[in-house]
Design a protein that fits this description.
Elements: E1 5-10, E2 14-21, E3 24-27, E4 33-36, E5 42-47, E6 50-57, E7 60-64, E8 67-71, E9 76-81, E10 84-91, E11 94-96, E12 104-106, E13 112-115, E14 123-126, E15 132-135, E16 139-143, E17 148-153, E18 166-172, E19 175-178, E20 184-187, E21 193-196, E22 205-209, E23 214-220, E24 223-228, E25 232-237
Parallel strand pairs: 1-22
Antiparallel strand pairs: 2-25, 3-4, 4-5, 5-6, 7-8, 8-9, 9-10, 11-12, 12-13, 13-14, 15-16, 16-17, 17-18, 19-20, 20-21, 21-22, 23-24, 24-25
Family: Belongs to the tectonin family.
Protein name: Fish-egg lectin
InterPro entries: Beta-propeller_rpt_TECPR, Tectonin_beta-prop
């Protein structure tokens, strides 16, 4: 089994199928929502119920307390500043803006980084290897190339690297996302969705019965955004 399940639940929410198709989506700071289109990697944000295209091209975008960040097809990093994408030193294949003030992410070699400090700061290299990394206000979670799940505790606005001691969490996921209120959602290699049912440190996971296979999920403030394996967009309001 992909995860050791203690429970499962059928999702009870108002499900809205949002027009369009995306390969990746992120919702964060005050339910701001950004996504990346599959083919041309165009960037969209949800404004007044409609998708609005933003200039530029990215393969991954993230929004949260650290701002709006993204990486392009060549792994170059950008930060959205007053409507313009400003290049930032370094290269990452995936970036996350969910930390208090510090973005974090992983590069093409699965090395893990976080950015402590403001303009001109350098990326801090964390120990270990992860293919996907996501941060909340007090901890960061990640999955490695074997889909094993890890948590880094002790993450603060002054210490983006946390305790530097990884703790393995039971189960297997291919991607994982932490919301600003500490809830944890993830998707396994079979396209099944899971949530931690005792955050911030899970005693286990439960499968979320969604009715179709998914490939990406993001949650914040009662909104669970889901990208199906067919790239369809769904907003589930609990």
């Amino acid at each position: 089994a992909e995860l050791e399940l203690g429970k499962s639940r059928r999702l009870r929410c108002i499900l809205l199928v949002v027009p369009g198709s995306l390969k990746q989506i992120d919702v964060g700071e005050r339910t701001a929502c950004f996504g990346v289109e599959l083919q041309a990697m165009e960037i969209f944000t949800l404004y007044s119920g409609a998708w609005t295209r933003i200039s530029g091209s990215l393969k991954h975008v993230s929004v949260g307390p650290a701002g709006v960040w993204g990486v392009n097809a060549n792994n170059y990093i950008y930060r959205l500043d007053n409507g313009d994408w400003v290049p930032v030193n370094g290269q990452l294949k995936q970036v996350d803006a969910g930390g208090t003030v510090s973005p974090a992410g992983v590069n093409m070699f699965d090395d893990i980084f976080c950015l402590q400090g403001g303009e001109g700061a350098s990326w801090t290299n964390l120990p270990g290897k992860l293919k996907y990394y996501s941060c909340g206000l007090n901890s960061c979670w990640g999955v490695n190339s074997g889909n094993l799940i890890y948590i880094m505790k002790g993450v603060t606005s002054n210490t983006c690297a946390g305790s530097l001691k990884w703790e393995q969490v039971s189960g297997y996921l291919s991607m994982i996302e932490v919301s600003t209120d500490g809830k944890v959602y993830g998707v396994n290699s079979n396209g099944d969705m899971y949530e931690s049912y005792s955050p911030p440190i899970p005693a286990g996971w439960r499968q979320v019965q969604f009715g179709q296979k998914v490939k990406h999920v993001s949650y914040d403030l009662g909104h669970l955004w889901v990208i199906g394996t067919d790239n369809s967009i769904m907003d589930c309001t609990e």
